[in-house]
Amino acid sequence: MTSIKVPIIENILEANDFVAEENRKIFSEHNIFCINIMAAPGAGKTALIVKTIELLKDKIRIGVIEGDTASVTIDSDQVVMAGAPAVQVTTAGECHMDAMMVRKGMEQLPLDDLDLVIIENIGNLICPAEWDLGSHADALVASVAEGDDKPWKYPNIYRNLDVLLITKTDLIPYVDYDIDHFKSGVEILNPGLVTFPTSAKTGEGFPAWTEWLLKKTKAAAEK
Amino acid sequence: MTSIKVPIIENILEANDFVAEENRKIFSEHNIFCINIMAAPGAGKTALIVKTIELLKDKIRIGVIEGDTASVTIDSDQVVMAGAPAVQVTTAGECHMDAMMVRKGMEQLPLDDLDLVIIENIGNLICPAEWDLGSHADALVASVAEGDDKPWKYPNIYRNLDVLLITKTDLIPYVDYDIDHFKSGVEILNPGLVTFPTSAKTGEGFPAWTEWLLKKTKAAAEK
After folding, report:
1. pLDDT tens digits for B33-60?
2. Which of B69, B124, B145 sits opposite A42 (nearest CB)?
3. Nearest CA distance, B169 vs chain A (angstrom)
4. pTM of the model
5. A41 vs B152: CB contact, 8 Å cut-off?
6. What are phi and psi of B212, to 5 degrees?
7. Angstroms from A168 CA to nearest CA on chain B
8. Can you tell me whether residue A135 is helix, strand or coil?
9. Nearest CB partner across the interface for B41, out of A40, A94, A155
10. pLDDT at B6
11. Which residue has the higher pLDDT, B76 or A27?
12. How far is Cα B50 from Cα B120, in angstroms, rounded to an integer?
């Protein structure tokens, strides 16, 4: 018998990362692009997702995995009304989603019939940054109402992002928010990060953002 | 020898609660009222604290313990400028403050010369709800820009509050926010909760809120 070296899975994050890697493989095998959307509570994740579905649903097939700390279906109901299958994963008070929750959500989605899976993470700027879910891209939604100092206050979440969505730009006239100051903070943490200023109310920025997402989704399908 | 039963401290929360109880006792021995202010990122905790200090600093002596995930001093600088001693406690990426962090902050404050200590918790609606810091009251700051569905989405944090501050009411005309819907959700979780709608911009609600806080502080001093 030859000696087989089995590395021990050391900690909860390592186990998580193992499942995340598998999730990513499963998505890729189905030619699906998966994006994980993070944000503070009330930043406008659901409004962004609903509008994105409305604009893209005739071009690609979209499924959503909704993370919620409580078992209310407010968000998933809105997503279903917008025309996409949604699975709600309740974290029962946990402060972030993990790869296993996403796996359970994936099992409920018709993966063979999807091109894009959007994960709506728990509203939290700290804990979700640590947990790989198995997505191909990580996005952050940052509302102008939160203030322009957030990159300095919550730097970790900005470091590994692939795309940043500034939301509620229609509120800029009514809040103290200097978009250049905000962007200068982001630039320190994540140079050259793709950034879309958007408003779900006025539609500003949605053509550019959905074009970016469509391009990524099509590239994943062609792999 | 008589048998002495020593209960074992079982978990991290039990150890935390032990320190928290001590913190509360130390505050009380110094005739200090301590309030823990929680919120989502960007809800306006710092603006509320700064304005509260400005309005109360001639009546009572206020100290602030600032929790931050990163070692930036944006918030504590603002508090010091408003005229109160502030200690910044950096959680080094942790998603909440705990009783030990507060203890370390207390050690840096001139407790003999204070009537009120305000703890500005980390911006997070989930994790801070679990951790007793040793305060006499827990407050939540909820901005109207976050939306009126938050009690349903983040119920745990509403359950044990002593006071609720609705902030940025000046934005109500520009956002979809039904204050009665919001309050109806709060009422289910925490019936009769003392609630102050406020705007740091217009000053709305600050006379009532600061009067409540002053009354609590004076009652603590007389005990």
Report:
1. 999 999 999 999 999 999 999 999 999 9
2. B145
3. 11
4. 0.89
5. no
6. -60, -45
7. 9
8. coil
9. A40
10. 57
11. A27
12. 11
pLDDT score, position B205:
98
* Contact check, Cβ <8 Å, A42/B147: yes
Q: Which residue has the tokens 């998505």?
A: A27
Q: What is the pLDDT of residues B132-166, one digit of tens each?
A: 999 999 999 999 999 999 999 999 999 999 999 99
Quote the pLDDT of residue B3. Answer: 60
Residues from B contacting A (CB-CB < 8 Å) are: 40-42, 68-70, 72, 74-75, 93-95, 122-127, 143, 145-147, 149-150, 152-156, 168, 170-171, 174-175
Digit-coded pLDDT (tens) for A127-152? 999 899 999 999 999 999 999 999 99
- Alpha-carbon distance of A4 to A7, in angstroms, equals 10
Fold type of domain A10-222:
Rossmann fold (3.40.50)
- Contact flag A171-B175 (C-beta cutoff 8 Å): yes
Distance of CA B119 to the CA centre of its chain: 5
In angstroms, the CA A138 to CA B53 distance is: 39
| Whether the Cβ atoms of residue B58 and residue B111 lie closer than 8 Å to each other | no
Average pLDDT score, chain A: 92
Q: Which of B174, B176, B184, B202 best tests the A interface by mutation, with the highest count of A CBs <10 A? A: B174
Nearest to B95 among A75, A95, A175 (CB): A95
Judged by phi (left if over 0) then psi (alpha if -120 to 50, else beta), residue B155 lies in alpha
Dist. CA A27–CA A165, nearest whole Å: 23
Which residue in this structure is represented by tokens 């819907």? B181
Predicted confidence at residue B72, as pLDDT, reads: 74
> Which pLDDT score is estimated for B20?
97
ipTM of the complex: 0.85
Domain chopping of chain B, boundaries = 10-222
Residues of A in contact with B124 (CB under 8 A): 95, 124-127
Residues of A in contact with B67 (CB under 8 A): none
Q: Is the pLDDT of residue A51 over 80?
A: yes
Q: What is the dihedral of CA B49, B54, B57, B62, to 10 degrees?
A: 20
CA distance to partner chain A, nearest, from residue B72 (Å): 7
